[in-house]
């Protein structure tokens, strides 16, 4: 009898453990939950990030025969990032929307000529807070089942949709999480984007339109979202993402920072390269993004902060990094975002978190590395990154 009840308790626990992770990322799971999950995963040691495309920076056709656009199949995932959505729809990323950091880095370099440093920063920041550090996979949208595994695996893949760890408020074409859907293309917001482009860019999204629309969206969130949050890292990403379309969504042969509404629709709504689209010159994208982000911020400088539970209550947050504090961005992200998600990792999880933290740090080589889980299993990576170009120019690191 005792044997039976022990068995029963164990089975009940097992069911609980198995059921729990099905639609959840690892972040925030208890030690016991993690222990139950670990044996059921293909644990992967994260490989180092791919290097920059040293001799592949040329302007070239990327909407090519090898990368045809395909409509979504059942189970394919897309999310808040129009760049990654497009890369998945053209097969630069796995079309199901589940990828490793290395696949993401290669895809953004090959498809859009994103700088290696930016690519590393974005890919490792997001695997740490949105992905599964054990399987080294993350979804570019919602949490999802792992398909095609033999034997079938439980779905323990986090996603970029997760709010307030990387994804944040005041997006250009996605609503704030407070209003429900923080990741789908929002036609009303895109119409605003187009109106600003008409008013300030003569029909194109250009630097002036970007400056005005970024500021407008912040004011709109202040006026409409009682829980509006605009602190690091979102404080940084909002300005950089406003710059991305000027650099990456403009055909590399044109490269004048003038994005037509036709092409903007193709990327933001349809997740598709325009016909004959050529990527940008990769030797220039880092400077262009940094300069544009700086200009967008400088046109209407804001202090990091947020509303206090009511609309129009925006208050400066002195604890958040501002745009002159690149190293604080890094340190606070590790200590205040990653560590609360994984307070006491053990075993393979700790090793993989440390490895990913080391890769992330490689995007901040002039800062002092922090080791929240001790120094074993991952150190800095000797890359000279774009963030440092930005830091030298703007940020005191
Ligand atoms: C390197 C890996 C990348 C990651 C992990 C990533 C992740 C994300 C995430 C999580 C967001 C949502 C942020 C938010 O609005 O709350 C976002 C937005 C955005 N991303 Fe990416 N991204 C990456 C690369 C790119 C590339 C290469 C492009 C352009 C080609 C791009 C263009 C954008 C734009 C324009 C937005 C803003 C969307 C909007 O405000 O409506 N991203 N990205």
From TrEMBL:
Residues 65-290 form the Heme haloperoxidase family profile domain. One of its GO terms (molecular function) is peroxidase activity. Residues 1-19 form the signal peptide. Keywords: Heme, Iron, Metal-binding, Oxidoreductase, Peroxidase, Signal. Gene3D superfamilies: Chloroperoxidase-like. Its cofactor is heme b. It holds the Pfam family Peroxidase_2. InterPro entries: Chloroperoxidase, Chloroperoxidase-like_sf. PANTHER family: HEME HALOPEROXIDASE FAMILY PROFILE DOMAIN-CONTAINING PROTEIN (PTHR33577:SF16), STERIGMATOCYSTIN BIOSYNTHESIS PEROXIDASE STCC-RELATED (PTHR33577). Belongs to the chloroperoxidase family. This is Heme haloperoxidase family profile domain-containing protein. It comes from Sphaerobolus stellatus (strain SS14).
